Amino acid sequence: MPSRINPSILAADFANLERELGRIRTADLVHVDIMDNHFVPNLTFGPPVVSRLAQVSPLPFDVHLMIDNPERWAPGYAEAGAFSVTFHAEATTNPVGLARKLRSIGARAGIALKPGTAVEPYLELLPEFDQVLVMTVEPGFGGQSFMPSTMRKLKTLSETVRKSGLDVWLQVDGGITEETIAIAAEAGADTFVAGSSVFNAADPAAQIARLRAAADE
Ligand code: DX5
Ligand code: ZN
After folding, report:
1. What b/e string do you get for 64-101 counting C-beta neighbours within 10 Å, with b at 16 or more?
2. Confidence class of residue 170 from pLDDT cuts 50, 70 and 90?
3. Which of 6, 82, 187, 195 could form a disulfide with 29 if both were Cys (CB 3.0 to 4.6 A apart)?
4. Ligand 1 pocket residue status of 21, Cβ below 6 Å
């Protein structure tokens, strides 16, 4: 199956978001990073901005919640029309309950793991999720370097998904470039978030094509 490339608008020009969305229309989904200055030491935007942007976006939204208390906020992003809503495993004590709530609203449910979080406790929960996000940097900022140590988790996940026959997308986020995307694809990722490597390119559409080619090699 061909790889999905999801550019992160964290690296876009915030003064021109509608225009920036137009530059990545050859991508698969738009990755939207929500940060609350509690779960991570950075702050981005919230529901009103996301729901308005979703109205003008040619592509569906892949929302990544780096926030505490996702129970309070995640359903609102699903109601705003997000295609997928991913919350952090470290931020909730009831991941299954929240995943079911998101699915009941019609969104795909995702669970994200920080680099230091073990994957094993979540393997038996995979049927409750549509995607798992393996963070390949510490969440909070764009432009960081890919951590190869996270690839072990991806291999465990891809083996488990393959054996179980489940249809769970395996996503990586952080430091994805033409070089690192091949490493993550080899480890079993099929969905790739890329912020600075797409938006810092002179031609984002050409960069999306290069990333796709490097992942599918
Ligand atoms: C980091 C965010 C990422 C970020 C990736 O906490 O979750 O989505 O935008 O940016 P790059 O691709 O620049 O590492
Ligand atoms: Zn992200």
Report:
1. bbbbbebeebbbbbbebbbbbbbbbbebbeebeebbeb
2. very high
3. 6
4. no
| ipTM summary value | 0.99
Q: What is the domain partition of the chain in residue ranges?
A: 4-216
Q: How many CB atoms lie within 10 A of CB 121?
A: 11
CATH architecture, range 4-216? Alpha-Beta Barrel (3.20)
d(CA 89, CA 135): 11
How far is residue 139 CA from its own chain's centroid? 11
Q: Is 62 a catalytic residue?
A: no
- pLDDT at residue 2, as a whole number: 81
**Per this entry, what is the length of the chain?**
217
Report pTM. 0.98
pLDDT in tens, 5-35: 999 999 999 999 999 999 999 999 999 999 9
12 lines ligand 1 (CB under 6 A): no
Ligand 1 closest atom vs CA 31: 8
Which residues neighbour 121 within 8 Å (Cβ) at sequence distance 6 or greater?
A: none
